[in-house]
## 1
Amino acid sequence: MKDAAIGIFDSGVGGLTVLRALAERLPGESFLYLGDTARLPYGTKSAETVSRYAVQAAAALVKRRVKLLVIACNTASAVALPALQAAFADIPVIGVVAPGAQAAVEAAPDGPIAVIATEGTVRGGAYARAIHARAPHIEVLQQACPLFVPLAEEGLTDGDLAAAVARHYLEQMRKAAPKCLVLGCTHFPALKAVIASAMGPGVALVDSAATTAMAVERQLKSSGALRDGGAPAIQFLVTDAPDRFARVSRIFLGAPVDPGAVEPIDLQ
Amino acid sequence: MKDAAIGIFDSGVGGLTVLRALAERLPGESFLYLGDTARLPYGTKSAETVSRYAVQAAAALVKRRVKLLVIACNTASAVALPALQAAFADIPVIGVVAPGAQAAVEAAPDGPIAVIATEGTVRGGAYARAIHARAPHIEVLQQACPLFVPLAEEGLTDGDLAAAVARHYLEQMRKAAPKCLVLGCTHFPALKAVIASAMGPGVALVDSAATTAMAVERQLKSSGALRDGGAPAIQFLVTDAPDRFARVSRIFLGAPVDPGAVEPIDLQ
């Protein structure tokens, strides 16, 4: 299984920020990325629906013989990780919430820690639980920021409009003076500059991408599954037409994706 | 079939603006409304995926014996109406694009006419075709306004943020000085005030809800299917959990929906 790809599942394009961190940290590995673009976004949907979608999507990756599953979508990690780990007990399934919580606790060991995320992630409370599992005394503040998702997908990541939306969501949170802010949705790193500006100085911004890549490396090393040769490859699967995915991916991956390298599949 | 309900299909909650106009114009009729909340939004998805979803959803309404189908979703009307009319040839299928185009041509017989809509509706060009079918000489301007959808669903329908987003999308269109602006997405009537302000005076804003209700009345009268007695009823079907639908529906229906009156169904 060493030469098998690492499977990465996301609701759409945002998880490409996680793919990017993984490819940088593990340049010898191959990756198979699946974006459920026909059913995105997950952030406004119920935990039951997100779990059902996530298990269907992960099954498509497992069928193609991946050696490890990364759940890049924060909402799916927050509400569907137990269902995924139960459904695919034969391979490691790593979500982004625990690595993100770990990064936050390291950045602000005494808190307070602020978490911004989708409606679904905030409602589920998984970040607060993961932070409290590591440091029960830390005060955790949460805020859903749903408009950040379409803003990032439209490429409106700076300028007056992005700044106004960031101020709208973060005004109250800024007053609580957190030491660290978790970017608890894969879309939010694209808006890092306006979020930092709205929060003011002295707030460490962390996202899950880098710490998730570290967790994946640790897991592969400990199980002897780290790849030791061969040509790495990155392939993309999507559930809607490839063109919009290829176009919007540039915002999150930092490089364009060739629409010809994107294969449409049907999960239903 | 006179006593059968009128089926209304939408991608989610926005179509409730069409239900509202229908219930006002046809107070003796019963309505069965289906919102495909597990797969919304449709506006960023491909024509193929939207057509597939629309036919699945309409089949669920037809199975419950509706006498007429209203496609309240502009995107589905714009890209899937021929597929729906072919799949359900036994009952009238009425979309919102033709009635909206008719209202626009009546409001501005010499143009120019501006159309704001989702990415999918703009890309498909159905409004321009429907306007030109009625008045080939009219200049048609189009602009996709994707952020209006989540803004409306969050209830951010007035205030500085909504005004800033409206200015962002409409600044160029205002310079073209259209005589009429079509609100080509069911979410947009909720933002009517900020849209009117961004366009300036002298621009007639039209949406499809009232003219679609007139088209439905005309169709029922001509086929003798107008209901002539009995207690009217409104029922709701959704594909995701009912709670968010019931909460957000108030913005579009103008009245709260009891979550108990909303039945979850599975289309897949």
## 2
Amino acid sequence: MIFDKKSICAALIAASVPLFSTGELSAQEPPPLAIKDFGSFHIGGRVVEIAGKPVKEVALTPHGAPAVIDPNGRYQVEQMYVQHFTPADERGRVPLLMWHGGGLTGVTWETTPDGRPGWLQDFLRRGWKVYNSDAVERGRSGWASPDIFKGDPVFLTVANPFERFRIGEGPGAWNDDPSKRRVHAGSLFPMKGYENFTRQVVPRWTTTDEAILNAYRELVDKVCPCVLVFHSQGGQFGFKVAQEKPDKIKALVAVEPASVGYLGQEAKLKNIPVLMVFGDYIEVDPRWKRMRETAGRFGDAISAAGGNVDIYDLPKRGISGNSHMMMMDSNSSQISGMVDAWLATKQLKR
Amino acid sequence: MIFDKKSICAALIAASVPLFSTGELSAQEPPPLAIKDFGSFHIGGRVVEIAGKPVKEVALTPHGAPAVIDPNGRYQVEQMYVQHFTPADERGRVPLLMWHGGGLTGVTWETTPDGRPGWLQDFLRRGWKVYNSDAVERGRSGWASPDIFKGDPVFLTVANPFERFRIGEGPGAWNDDPSKRRVHAGSLFPMKGYENFTRQVVPRWTTTDEAILNAYRELVDKVCPCVLVFHSQGGQFGFKVAQEKPDKIKALVAVEPASVGYLGQEAKLKNIPVLMVFGDYIEVDPRWKRMRETAGRFGDAISAAGGNVDIYDLPKRGISGNSHMMMMDSNSSQISGMVDAWLATKQLKR
């Protein structure tokens, strides 16, 4: 007998750790998490044909027999990887889909770069069934040859996210000598995990938005009604898919959206509660100030059409120090708790 | 209160499904899985400097403010993504590391392409703490620019794994018309999931073996002693790392290794129990016949040095129909059960 339910339960019940309340996770060692099911699938994409290229023979492993690689033929491209977790004690009325930002993967929502549980674990422990995907051409979704994807992918230096994600004070704030880096005063980004964070960065194209959208559309058709939680580059994807399929989306949580949905079609979101969350240092960063303004105008247009939009500018709520990567900052669980509490006010939790 | 331990436990205890026994998983809906902890990290890699390239301004999102992308600078490359799960009822004496094969990622071990639990779930439910990684340059490990990785990556057609992984009868067996595909008679590969399987395929380089090895070395240093379970291209990585760090490795499970370790250094494995598992149709596939022979010679050399090697040729044990992707075949849990039972005979389970 390898799964002894009684002894696990005795341990669970005997455990002296406090139980969670909504919006707040225990800082102590959490009790075991009962998972009903977890796994993964790929969705979407298309098959394309390539013709007229020479055949190659390639030794794929040392001492291995050579394999014939004929580049001509049909290729599966633009699919999307989705990993999902269902808690035994499911309390969200619908699942929660997590869509990461540019140059990153679903790892954004997992363990923080300094080793704490991420938003994926936070929401799962708060009773949400979670689908965490890697956008098309990122991570476990794979990517296609230059015959399919046009243009060059973008690779980020170790300095780039530091200067662009409001961890450092902006362009020029990075220095290869850690003691000379200009971190924003009061920053909550866990700098001891910064090197780990740069390991999470993956190449990205700037020509694949439509393919990314297509896969998200298929995912929503497959697993929703749902809540979308999306970050940064995910802004356009989350808002656009909700505008296209408003009946499938029960709430939108836009974490520092770097872009918005279809302009002029804001009324399509009037029946969907929207929460936008922005961190600190936005006023002193001209690029982020513009993106905050764009998001605000989009939110105002939804409200003007009769919608329901909340914008949490964290510093105005007494929470300072958050970078663009607030799901990794030292108060990450406080913020996921605020999101969870907001969702509860929308009658989305049992 | 969102994590009600008593009610979960009442449900667990009341559940009428049978408990598991070693080597056999229930075909019925399994009870919830109690997970002590799960998450992910990246490990290894190095920082490289690129210089002398022009600066670009790129609009990363529509309507978004343009971002300056300076390709010069320092890049984090060759890191490896690792996801880990710890069962509450841990019964493996050491963790189990799963290393996938070429052109694939850790998804190999997750849900099968036709939607059944994969070996990751099987071993976790059997009480093993599991670390499932994406090799360097695959999946969530990310990949580096042509300035770093030499040569072109290999992309696989939808036909290629069908013909090369002993699902179909070999070269020429694929046909775009499913009714004209020549599947091996008696094949256990779930053909209704074949299209999903092709979605799991990712590009791979043939010049990155040393970088892949380096990351595996670091992983073993971080989390072992352990058991290594590796597949196909993983053969050389699993055997070589074990030869380099024999004190860290308590058992090796080579699932159809396409390559072996350092020749002439087989004696370094004499204190590590080795299990190799091979499927069906090998005798009728010249390329696989050679790889089976290479693995057999390597195993004989370990035995001759005083080691302990078991080779399971499944057809000789009455199990026919297995492809190269036996962790996806319809009897996948039967085979993971045989591996689990073999590990138990090596005193690696509590």
